[in-house]
Amino acid sequence: MYYRSMFPRDLLAELERLQREVPQTVEPGPSIRGQKRGYPALNVGGTPNAVEIYAFAPGLDPATLDVQLEKGILTIAGERKAPAVSEQATVHIGERFAGRFRRVVSLPDDIDPNSIVAKYRDGMLHVSVQRREETQPRRISIQ
Amino acid sequence: MSDTNQAPKSAAATHEDAALLPPVDVLEDAGGITLYADLPGVPKDRLSLHVEADVLTIDGEVVLDAPEGMELTHTEVGLPRYRRQFTLSKELDAGKVKASFEQGVLTLRIPKAEHAQPRRIEVQVV
């Protein structure tokens, strides 16, 4: 990263950092670094009657979040401002995402575009889309 | 202040101990250090911060309001926990840490100890 070349540091510390970061890059290890997977990170789940989308989008003003559903495609877009850095300040670590973002999820065919709820809490956007009733599995009684 | 996270000991590290490394920004100015950490999905009461000796530990637990019987089909955040440790330099006054936590972003302000604050020395003209 840019700041590292600007501030050459202790070689041992750098080696240690490499040792830590390489496995994270190579293996699908426990990392949510936005740079690798896009911001915000998404988890998607489903139940028989709804589709749940969780976007891990910390530090946003919910008013600036743009959530759209068009032809079964859900788009989450917005912008995250970088923290204000005064001129005298030095940035030692800068890993957090800043800038415009946009993520797109294709939803299953059986969703009901009229029953969609989006909530933003604790830096997480939760979009819940109901499935259409007529497509839900029904047990047919035998006469 | 330096990052002192150990590399995961092995893939078989106990599941309970496994945690994600939250991304942080660390800024330093004359008065101290400001740290921002992204901890999305962590409610205020599940965030724990503590300083022991000179090690600052950030620990947070993710709470998803998942409906019953939900099956995850796509996972980018695979663990419900964040943890990261930092070693504070002696210049910092760990007793005066100010923290705020809003919409998943933790902001910590750690002032420098008084003896480490820059002082302006008057030059006298004789």
- Considering DSSP H and I runs of 4 or more, what fraction of the residues of chain A is helical? 10-25%
Large-scale geometry of chain B? elongated
- Major sheet attributes of chain A: 4 strands, antiparallel
Query: How much of the polypeptide of chain B forms β-strand, as a percent range?
Result: 35-45%
Structural class by helix and strand composition of chain A:
alpha+beta
- Give the count of helical stretches of chain A: 3
Quaternary assembly:
heterodimer
- Strand element count of chain A: 8
The name of the CATH architecture of the domain at 21-64 and 78-114 in chain B is Sandwich
SSE string of chain B: EEEEEEEEE
Return the CATH topology of the domain at 21-64 and 78-114 in chain B: Immunoglobulin-like
Q: Could you tell me the mean pLDDT of chain A?
A: 81
Largest interface by residue count?
Answer: A-B, 50 and 51 residues
The largest beta-sheet of chain B arranges its strands as: 1-7-5-4
The figure for the number of domains of chain A is 1
CATH third-tier fold name of chain A: Immunoglobulin-like
Helix share of residues of chain B?
under 10%
Distance between the termini of chain A: 70 Å
Shape of chain A: elongated
